[in-house]
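Input/output pair, single chain:
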Amino acid sequence: MKKFVETLSNIWKLEELRNRIMITLGLLLVYRFGCQIVLPGIDTSQLGALTEGTEQGIFSLLNAFTGGAFANASIFALGIMPYISASIVVQLMSIAIPYLQKLDKEGESGRKTKNQITRWLTIGICIVQAPAYLYGLEAFGVRDSAFLLGKGLDFMVPAVIILVTGCVFAMWLGEKITDKGIGNGISLLIMIGIIATMPQAFVQEAVSRWTGIGGPMLVLVEIIIWFLVILACVLLVMATRQIPVQYARRTASGGYEKNVMGSRQYIPLKLNASGVMPIIFAQAIMFVPGLIGSAFDDTAVGQWIQVQFADIFGWAYNILFALLIIIFTFFYTAITVPTNKMADDLKRSGGFIPGIRPGKETGDFLDKIMSLITLPGSIFLAFLAVFPAFVVKLMGVQSGWALFYGGTSLLIMVGVAIDTVQQVNSYLLNRHYDGLMKTGKNRKVA
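Output:
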């Protein structure tokens, strides 16, 4: 505890880091404040049905990602997810479109152009999603009387503009946090939205246990299991396979000495190189079985499909969900980890893997290693994604609190928290201070 307090004191001493943290907290506060502002023209007293409709099912995840803005009919109801969707689309299109591939090779200017394309695509997605959200409120039980101006153009046009502007403003907040704050702006917005719903979910679970079956002892057991799941998520995010690399030592004459005297380093290949993207992809595909079931609503098979895949904690839903995650993990890793490019860069820098020839053989070796470590990583990721179903079915945990026992929510929280701590550590270590994850005395300036 003394070390932690000392580290906080060191953080406060660094003016640049202190200002960045304050800017980050201020912008996050602005985002949370906007999540509570209801769209003009909607009666807030009649949104109870919307709140109840987003407590369970797939929409509970969407409501968690928006920090409750979805259930509040807020100006930030679309959240930052359209930007995430646009980023994924642009990233996937980079595989097939030569123009986007060219931008990747142009450095900083190409990255700026690609970001601009992502922003415009985000606006396009918002223009489609905003009317769908407004008209879809009726499906959640929101009565027509809640729309004070009706559903005519007098309400729809301004409401769509506000929702699109809200998403663009949230995107701007994320970019400002990245530039002026401590980094990972978009991820921090998602994480803060998820954390915002966690206290209420835990209180509801604790009250139900305290007054019902289990009592305080079962609450303690649930907390212990929750910490163990967090530990498993940390292991999944941090686990790497280190590939030894030998670099040739440059001689005084300008040549290279390729012998054991060269410096040895490592290529860290992550056990889960795809992050939470496979879960997001799989989650999007899980809408399809319900649509197929509704298309054959007049048959027994269609009705069975609708019943089974309407419950996100059901066994049929989670078995298919886990299989899709494993498949998408291999797919996304294959397109985001360019082993051939890594081999070429290694060859150009004068490095080689001991026992492996530079060039194609090195690329094949790295690809083989990635395939071997991706299989257990994908299975582990799939298990964490479906673990909330186990705690619901076997322990009777409420659905709101169960979402924090794994899946996208917990993995995002753990991943962003680790990245943020590493960002803070980099500032502290550059100023000769120990970081949040280190021990020992402060380093002295030479």
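The radius of gyration is 25 Å. The first helix runs from residue 2 to 13.
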